[in-house]
Amino acid sequence: MSAKIKGAYSSRSFVSRKWTILLCLGSFCVGMFFTNRMWNIPESKGMSHPSVTEAERLKLVSEGCNPKALYQKEVKRDPQALFGEVANTHIALQTLDKTISSLEMELAAARSVQESLQNGAPLSDDMGKKQPQEQRRFLMVVGINTAFSSRKRRDSIRATWMPQGEKRKRLEEEKGIIIRFVIGHSATTGGILDRAIEAEDRKHGDFLRLDHVEGYLELSGKTKTYFSTAFSMWDADFYVKVDDDVHVNIATLGETLVRHRKKPRVYIGCMKSGPVLSQKGVRYHEPEYWKFGENGNKYFRHATGQLYAISRDLASYISINQHVLHKYANEDVSLGAWFIGIDVKHIDDRRLCCGTPPDCEWKAQAGNICVASFDWSCSGICRSADRIKEVHRRCGEGEKALWSATF
Fold first, then answer.
1. pLDDT digits over 114-152, tens only?
2. Pairing state between β 266-272 and 345-348
3. Measured between alpha carbons, how far is 260 from 6 in angstroms, rounded to an integer?
4. What is the DSSP letter of 247?
5. What's the start-to-end Cα distance of the chain, in Å?
6. Cα separations (Å) of 361 from 161, 178, 245, 357, 383?
7. How far does Cα 189 stand from its chain's mean position?
8. Does the pLDDT of residue 339 top 80, yes or no?
9. Beta partners for 248?
């Protein structure tokens, strides 16, 4: 009995061990199967294997980081090509600077108009309506500063260096040059002085009338009003102011200004720095002399008042800020003061302040024709109404020079 039980127990034990081993092997195989299927490492969505081309690019970048390789590449570059790239970059920066300057001026003008509207201030007629001349860009506007008593001076200029009638219209259309006598009105508007100017204007049509009361002590205000008015009426590269006792060669003036056409904020004239006169009663007395320091000090550099020119962006600056620009006793000092705090290119050209014959005549014979001629002792041509024809004959550039000039 015991032997049977022992044999049966031994048989069941053997079977159990056999199935246990098979079960273990089966479990191991199933586990390996599921491990290969379920535990593959996922690839990141943002990562990709580099292609052959990308691998080459990475190799080039890694080579570029090598200082030695970089130096060898720079040595192989053509020096002329490098200079060309530098020049092109310089031109691009100048163009960008001019564009930014123009945009800043236009933005300031828009803000000025907006403030005027918000404050209820009326806009001037020039700002409220578009002038026909604004359809084109002129080379320059030449304003001849004159007075009610200067009829003979004006006639002498008309007879010499200022074209008349159809020639003046041709000058505007073909050469882009506007020339006008600049004058305001008398203290009694509509009086005999104003009527005389109106009659003269009907005859010649060469005046620019300003909203300004005439007076020698008001020249700074007249200069400011002239530039503002001219800028609102004509779109030009340059705006010129000249006195009515100065001889001017128009073609030479145009050729001089054209050289600086691409430069921003240009102020051209014969630069000087005279003494600040504190003594009352003397000519060119400066009532605000104390602002310039101790007695005996000199003014800052500014163009002499007989003739000077400013570029379009500076005329715009004056027009926008005319109500806050300070006026000194002398108009040339005032103009120089307005440009002290901004980035302006001062160009000192001595051909804009030649002497009368024989000075300008010798220079013309040497091929260096003067832009303007006058006598320093008189701050203009002495007895200009009588002498300007002689100056024109001996120092003038000739009418052919004007019509053959290209600007």
1. 554 454 433 444 444 444 444 689 999 999 999 999 999
2. parallel
3. 125
4. E
5. 138
6. 16, 27, 18, 5, 19
7. 37
8. yes
9. 372
The residue whose two tokens read 């970048």 is: 61
What kind of fold does domain 138-270+304-404 have according to CATH? Answer: Spore Coat Polysaccharide Biosynthesis Protein SpsA; Chain A (3.90.550)
- What stretch of H or E contains 38? helix 2-38
The token duo for 103 is: 């945009």
What backbone phi and psi angles, to 5 degrees, belong to 380? 170, -175
Two tokens, residue 241: 């102011």
How far is residue 109 CA from its own chain's centroid? Answer: 14
Residue with tokens 């205000």: 221
Helix, strand or coil, per DSSP, at residue 102: helix
Whole-number Cα distances in Å, 274 to 37, 284, 299, 332, 340: 97, 10, 6, 11, 16
The model's pTM is 0.69
The domain limits of the chain are 138-270+304-404
pLDDT at residue 128 in the model = 42
Burial 289-328 (b: 16+ CB within 10 A, else e): beebeeeeeebeebbbbbbbbbbbbbbbbbbbebeebebb
Q: Do 378 and 386 form a contact (C-beta atoms < 8 A)?
A: no
CB of 29 closer than 8 Å to CB of 22? no
* Phi–psi pair at 201, nearest 5 degrees: -70, -35
What value does the mean pLDDT take over residues 86-93? Answer: 70
Number of H helices, E strands in the chain: 15, 9
Give yes or no for a contact between 141 and 240, defined as CB atoms under 8 angstroms apart: yes
Q: In the numeric block, which tokens belong to residue 315?
A: 């005329």
* Dist CA 375 CA 381 (whole Å): 5
Interval 164-173: pLDDT, tens: 999 999 999 9
